[in-house]
Design goal:
With about 625 residues, the protein is an alpha/beta fold. The chain has 3 domains: about 1-85, no CATH class; about 120-275 and about 285-485, Glycosidases (TIM Barrel), CATH 3.20.20.80; about 495-595. It has 21 helices and 12 strands. It has helices at about 1-20, 25-35, 60-80, 130-145, 175-185, 200-205, 230-245, 265-275, 285-305, 320-330, 350-360, 385-405, 435-445, 450-460, 470-475, 490-520, 525-530, 535-540, 545-560, 570-595, 615-620; strands spanning about 105, 115, 115-125, 150, 190-195, 215, 220-225, 250, 310-315, 335-340, 365-370, 410-415. The strands form 3 sheets. It has an 8-stranded parallel beta sheet. Helix 1 (about 1-20) packs across helix 3 and helix 16 packs antiparallel against helix 19 (about 545-560). The protein is globular, with a radius of gyration of 30 Å. The structure holds zinc ion. Zinc ion (ZN) binds near residues 224 and 266.
């Protein structure tokens, strides 16, 4: 089976690489047409000139057989041209076989790149979507082109035993986790679980029982890698997560943003001892050394003891020189996931980094974003910017795959962050990011944001009867694409309410700005002296009088709609974060207006100092004896 899959994948890669290298388009196009036609279910929008590389699941078994037959014929040439993509086969003890080579599809003219795996990241931390919603979501993302889901449970995983308090009180149950995998499997989606094992361990280290494991006592973020108990806890977390994911081929072990390193007494002593040891042949040791050692230890445990391939976020590796990365032997145990969420990927990962990664790692992943990347407190998704980010990644992956013989991308992960870390508030919610997720999935599955991709997203999101919403021109006009609320995907109703919220919020901000900055009857002076025209105040307030009632209604509608997707705790958090501050601001404005209009008689001017002001003010204007005041020395 491994051989068959390897041959199949090599065959596909050969098709792609040979196309690019030989420019022999005529013959290959006919092969591509054949393959595309045989897979009409999931590849309706993929141009005929592209080969689909989805090779998971039973429905592609026939296609695999066809490719295998072809691969047998062309194998000798394959070995010469694409040997760099191969590695020693993994153990076959696991139920799921990891394709040794995961070649992307590149169009005949080299212009389009389609990642082999298209992964949807579900970030559950502190805000678990209802299982019923996730069940509904999986067929849709599969149809849009996803091949896998990356499950970031954080405190939503049902840890047990000594780890039970790590789980939130509203965490999923073991049955929930099993059901999720069952539904994923039914939709031919691979499940890649994620568990943090170094940085971003706030959900563990915030607790009293684990606080002694912090690298820096006041920051519950990074775990100290030098304590025996840290290792015990990490092993136990991995054991529990994998025991509920017995079919997992990959485990993401996090390791991003480890900002506290080598600072605790044990770690700093360890570094001091190493650096003062005359027999130390490993060179100068610092925080990076501790990072590489710990990641290697955790990854080796996952790979050797669990027979699962560990993945790590790459950000901590970017600044480590190639020779140090080589010496760490990290390349033998992990596959890094390179993440950049903005449109200019090259600004964050330069050519030297790509060259280093190519030398060190046999396989690599890329990560873009479909939500949760452009502001910690954003509530609406900027679809246009996420499309820009994904298109940038396709171009970088295409360029790096064609220009170097060393880099082999496993696929592209669409991340969808729910919070920037455990303690942060919620950013954009999953149901209202559905148009971004589906459009971006379709784009990376067809290799371009063309008319066909826009049309396919339009159809998958059930926007029938609407004008074209997802073309580049439409997104330029309306980056959030609020009009998608008229579609009929699950979440479109919530998007409609969010659109109302957006308008109300804008109204509140505009009114407050006008009243406090421009209006001549409700300024700070008017308020402090309780001195204004009641008619003018009433006129100003006419435009905002509807807001308290509108916000109350919106709050009720939002609560109901959010309740379809989230439990009551997440619903309450969102309302507290978004609606209640608006209500408070409007409430403050109403009180101000009441205070300004309760007088029926007013004092003669001058009004004198407001309560608590300095008495000297009145002396200056009464012309009192103050010869030193410069105002008195000016000509009158
Ligand atoms: Zn330490």
């Amino acid at each position: 089976m491994v051989l068959a899959l390897t041959l199949a994948c090599l065959g596909l890669l050969y098709v792609s690489a040979n196309h690019y290298l030989s420019n022999n388009d005529t013959e290959q196009t006919s092969t591509n047409d054949q393959l595309t036609a045989s897979d009409s279910n999931s590849n309706e929008a993929i141009p005929n000139s592209l080969v689909n590389s989805i090779s998971n699941g039973k429905k592609n078994e026939q296609k695999r057989q066809e490719i295998e037959n072809t691969a047998n014929v062309i194998l000798p040439e394959v070995e010469n041209s694409v040997e760099f993509r191969t590695n020693k086969p993994l153990s076959t003890q696991k139920k799921m076989v990891v394709e040794e080579s995961t070649p992307a599809v590149i169009s005949a003219d080299g212009s389009r790149y389609i990642p082999y795996h298209r992964v949807v990241h579900l970030d559950l931390k502190g805000a678990p979507p209802k299982l019923s919603y996730l069940k509904e979501l999986l067929p849709l993302v599969r149809e849009a082109g996803a091949t896998a889901i990356l499950m970031e449970y954080e405190d939503m995983f049902p840890f047990w035993g000594t780890l039970r308090n790590i789980s939130a009180k509203n965490a999923y149950s073991q049955r929930d986790v099993q059901n999720l995998q069952k539904w994923a499997m039914q939709n031919d989606l691979i499940v890649i679980p994620l568990v943090q094992t170094f940085g971003h361990m706030e959900f563990v280290l915030k607790l009293d029982e684990f606080k002694d494991l912090r690298e820096v006592p006041i920051y519950p973020q990074s775990i100290c890698p030098s304590q025996d108990r840290s290792w015990t806890i990490i092993q136990e977390m991995i054991d529990q997560v994998l025991s509920l994911h017995p079919d997992a081929a990959w485990l993401h072990i996090g390791c991003d943003e480890v900002y506290q390193l080598g600072q605790c007494p044990i770690c700093s002593q360890k570094l001091l001892t190493a650096n003062t040891d005359p027999n130390n042949s490993n060179g100068y040791q610092d925080g990076r050394s501790l990072f590489l050692q710990h990641v290697h230890r955790v990854a080796s445990y996952v790979k050797n003891q669990k027979n699962v391939i560990p993945i790590i976020w790459d950000d901590m590796l970017r600044t480590i020189p190639a020779h140090i990365l080589q010496d760490s032997k990290l390349g033998e145990v992990v596959e890094p996931m390179v993440w950049v969420y903005v449109e200019d990927v090259d600004r964050f990962v330069d050519s030297l980094t790509w060259a280093n990664y190519g030398e060190v790692f046999s396989h690599i992943w890329a990560a873009s974003a479909y939500k949760g990347a452009f502001g910690e407190r954003l509530y609406a998704v900027n679809v246009q910017r996420h499309v820009g980010n994904n298109l940038a990644w396709l171009e970088v992956m295409r360029r790096e795959t064609l220009s170097t013989s060393k880099l082999s991308f496993r696929g592209l992960v669409l991340t969808g962050w729910s919070r920037y870390d455990h303690f942060a508030v919620l950013c954009e919610l999953l149901p209202i990011a559905m148009h971004s997720l589906i459009l971006n999935l379709v784009i990376i599955t067809s290799g371009a944001h063309d008319y066909e991709a826009s049309k396919r997203a339009h159809r998958l999101l059930q926007c029938n009867g609407q004008k074209s919403l997802f073309t580049p021109q439409e997104l330029r006009r309306n980056p959030q694409q609020w009009d998608a609320h008229r579609c009929r995907f699950s979440g479109s109703g919530l998007l409609g309410l969010l659109s109302s919220y957006n308008m109300n919020r804008h109204e509140v901000e505009t009114s407050l700005e006008h009243i406090s900055e421009k209006d001549g009857w409700m300024s700070k002076y008017n308020i402090e002296h309780k001195y204004s025209s009641p008619w003018r105040v009433h006129e100003s307030m006419k435009t905002v009088a509807y807001l308290p009632g509108a916000l109350k209604t919106l709050e009720q509608q939002m609560a109901k709609s959010l309740g379809q997707f989230y439990d009551q705790f997440t619903v309450e958090e969102w309302l507290e974060q978004h609606i209640q501050p608006l209500e408070e601001r409007v409430g403050g404005l109403m009180k101000m207006a009441r205070d300004l209009t309760e007088r029926i008689v007013w004092p003669r001017r001058p009004l004198g100092a407001p309560a608590g002001a300095s008495p000297e003010l009145s002396q200056i204007h009464s012309g009192g004896d103050n010869s030193e005041d410069p105002l008195n020395q000016m000509p009158r």
